[in-house]
What does this fold into?
Amino acid sequence: MIIQCYVLFPVFRDVVRRLSALMPSKWRPAALAGVGALYVLLMFAVGPVYHMMDKLQLPVITSWFTLYADRNVIYFFFYFVLGAAAGMNVKRWDEWVIKAQRVYWPLFIVITGYLLYEMISLFQTPQGAVFSFNYLSLLRPVMAVYCVTSIFAAYRVATWIAHKGGRAASLLTSIGTLSYGAYLMHAFMLRVTYYFDETLFAEWNHVLRTLISFVLCAVFSIAGTWLLARTPLGKWVVGLQVRPRPAGGPPALQKQA
It folds into this structure.
């Protein structure tokens, strides 16, 4: 999906700029909400589109909507629209995030509890406990709503921490520089955590096992990115290269343009 984003980004940027120039600023929040509603409806269509494409068996196109549907950029377009809205209207975005707290925080908390309950209940099978996160497929309406609310919630927490400053802000800033590489390798690292779960935590409570897997996946992904960033190919593999530390100063970072 990352390659698709790179290829389509110039077109996406041009379209967003043109539409933004044509639309009065007062209508932009409503337009963004409308696009969000259409995106949720699109998630309802993922299943029917899958079956239709499976019957048609069109070269390349069918696999794009079936086998690789979870990597199809079309099914994730709204998150890029949100990013454009935030990047082009930072001050207004901050205002929206603050004003909408009464909406997204309850949704985020309720859906988090619901998904956690449903996921953990599925661990119990007739064959015993099976530790899997397949239930958390992003191509579902409830997950679309959850991802959007989590973006708002995470942004609100991040701005609050940044405003306070201190070690927490510095730590999150350091982690943020590694976020791209961590994103690329997190799916693999999640598989790695299964080994530790099955060998070390098999008899533990499922909720605790889920939380441990989450923490291990995050730590392994960040650590892996940190290590790769120190190699000559780090800039091309994880989008970041950490050069040797100058005398008396911090390591120099070089990001992929």
Observations:
- The chain has a mean pLDDT of 85.
- The beta strands are 124-125, 128-129, 240-242, 253-255.
- The chain has eleven helices and four strands.
